[in-house]
Structure prediction request, 265 residues.
Amino acid sequence: MRVHSLPVEPQPAPCTTVAAAPVGADLRRHVLGYGGFRSGDGVALRHRVLPAVAAVLVIDVDSGDAFVTGPRTRAVLAAERWGHGVTAGLTPAGVATVLGMPMGELAGAIVPFEAPDLVERVAAAEAWADRFAVLDGWMRRTARDADHRADPGLVAAWRRLQRSGPPGVDEVAALLGVRRRRLEQAFQRYVGVAPGAVACVARFQRAVGMLAGHTALGRVAAECGYADQPHLTREVGAMSGCTPGELRRHLHAAQSFKTSPVMLS
Prediction:
């Protein structure tokens, strides 16, 4: 489970979230997953955007606003607001295709996304499944017509570093047949997060997924690959600005999961 962000302000009721995977193996190179969200009263809220190694397209159907949040290793309070709409998690290949730029140029940023036709079609669809189908079709057409492509080897390394118990950065560089320094330079430009940080953020996101439940903190630390519970506490605090217990309370207060979410508001 990946959690994109959490509302900053208290809500009268939890945010409702749904999730779906892209339909078709061809899209999975570009899209990690889709999410649908609605705040407790449907009103747009400010959010705390959590650390992530992917970019996320956010479309608020009520306001018609759309923007992309870039990869980051620290949480940030967004100036933008959203309350009802959809998200799409984009791989480095997806960013190159959809935005025509390396994902590294979005690192730590939140940028406007101009695609009024897409926003209108998503807003016109009432069912979540229909909205995700609109995203599927638009992503597929965009991928077919795009002139920009991400290096498949780099994308494979990016995915590999996110696995639980991944090989070290040196091993991944060796698998690609490049020196570590060259791999780090490529990640800086095309991912926006250093290779070692990719593994750390992926571990943080695994911990967030478990914190959304009721798993004991010691078990979260052990199963997510932290040395011990104090290590979990230090790293979660550095990345999110919260202790694991505080982050768990925010997750429980903010979200009402209809399905196991892939990418949330």
Summary: The chain has ten helices and ten strands. The longest strand covers residues 31-38. Residues 5-149 form one domain. The chain has two domains: 5-149, 152-253.
